[in-house]
Design a protein that fits this description.
Molybdopterin biosynthesis moea protein, domain 2; single chain; Molybdenum Cofactor Biosythetic Enzyme, Chain A; disordered C terminus; 4 domains; six-stranded mixed β-sheet; about 15% helix
């Protein structure tokens, strides 16, 4: 058995980024940039007023009250065409370009206006309430870098940069093949000894959430010829993911069947729990990730290995799950030789620090527990017993709804 770290390194060594495509701003959120996005304009293009008020010369309001003559108006989008001279002011609104000669804005609350006269009641320093040209960014600035997954904020920035199209990585195509006589699709008749398949549906959702495009091939029975035929249909995909049958029992046929059609196996079996019977190789030019059949094992391995594969295919910089330090909410026994991933809840203590409390039952078939969990406590191989209050590494489950 190899370690989790070695398995991830060997897997990623065989993965290359996918190709690129152009998308409009309307379809850019959630996509990963394949090239830097460079501003085509300067923002703001001119010095503009930050407030509603009067554009003046700072030299004219050194002493107050100061009476000035209003020579015009400058709404946003309709700049004043003239020039402000000594003793003059222009009524200006937020976002309007500063008139020539004016260098300061006095907000309307600090003035008294009557006809074409305005009395300035406060002294404002030079440049007050003026947004200088290029305050936000300048033409030629590379503001969104390749490898960035675009948020709604980024889409707004690209629009402000006058960049209507963006070069992004295309969505990696991931073929998903479940195996086993014992599983049926949701809604189908459940025969004796059978259960409903959840893995392919969870995997498809996981792939989509991580920037890929899932192709659900279906369920292959425990029969070599059909398994080979169904796997062959995935050769045009960027990745083939199988669930179940990754071990070497009499009914675990993935290795032997696909070996007959060219599977070059890199490794199988990882020193981890859940997820020991995981394999990786290539079926021709298509990388193959063989996940265990137990639902929790499938999802934990997806987090540890499938997500990094998709990240590398998309050119994203982060290829490992993020970890946080948390206090343990319960005692833990010493660990054996396998790296352990324990489902847990996360809660904030009175001091704001997170506390991770493992569920008592950690069986790898219990999807309800995984759905309730907030993260995974990581236990290193041969870790000594730990007490409640000790610090542990935790992989938190991010909330995809919190994207701004």
């Amino acid at each position: 058995m190899i370690s989790v770290a070695e398995a991830r390194a060997r897997i990623l060594a065989g993965i290359a980024p996918v190709g690129t495509e152009q998308v409009s701003l309307a379809g850019a959120a959630g996509r990963t940039l394949a090239a830097d996005a460079v501003a085509r304009v300067t923002q703001p293009p001119n010095s503009v007023s930050a407030m509603d008020g009067y554009a003046v010369r700072a030299a004219d309001i050194v002493k107050v009250p100061a009476a000035l003559r209003v020579i015009g108006t400058a709404p946003a989008g309709r700049p004043f065409a003239g020039s402000v001279k000594a003793g003059e002011a222009v009524r200006i609104f937020t976002g309007a370009p500063m008139p020539e000669g004016a260098d300061t804005v006095v907000i309307q609350e600090d003035t008294d206006a009557a006809g074409d006269q305005v009395t300035i009641k406060v002294v404002e320093p030079l440049g007050r309430w003026v947004r200088k040209a290029g305050l936000d960014f300048k033409a030629g600035d590379a503001l969104l870098r390749a490898g960035r997954t675009l948020t709604p904020r980024d889409v707004g920035l690209a629009a402000a940069m006058n960049v209507p199209w963006l070069a992004v990585r295309r969505r990696p195509r991931v073929a998903i093949l479940a195996t086993g006589d014992e599983i049926v699709q949701p809604g189908e008749t459940i025969g004796p000894g059978q259960i409903v398949s959840s893995n392919s549906w969870a995997l498809a959702a996981f792939v989509a959430a991580n920037g890929g495009e899932a192709i659900n091939i279906g369920i292959a029975p425990d029969e070599k010829a059909t398994l080979k035929t169904m796997a062959e249909s995935a050769r045009g995909a960027d990745l083939l993911v199988t669930t179940g049958g990754a071990s070497v029992g009499e009914h675990d046929l993935v290795q032997s069947a696909l070996g007959e059609i060219g599977l070059a196996l890199d490794f199988w079996k990882i020193a981890m729990r859940p997820g020991k019977p995981l394999m990786f190789g290539k079926l021709g030019a298509t990388p193959l990730l063989g996940l265990p059949g137990n639902p929790v094992s499938t999802m934990v391995c997806s987090l540890l290995f499938l997500a990094p594969i998709l990240a590398k295919m998309l050119g994203r910089p982060e290829t490992e799950p993020k970890r946080i330090a948390a206090r343990l909410g319960a005692d833990l026994k010493e660990n054996d030789r396998r790296e352990d991933y324990l489902r847990c809840t996360l809660a904030r203590g009175a001091d704001g620090a997170p506390t991770a409390t493992p569920f008592r039952a950690q069986d790898s078939s219990m999807m309800a527990t995984l759905a309730k969990a907030d993260g995974l406590i990581i236990r290193a191989p041969l870790a000594p017993a730990a007490k409640a209050g000790d610090t542990a590494d935790v992989i938190p489950f991010a909330d995809p709804a919190v994207v701004i």
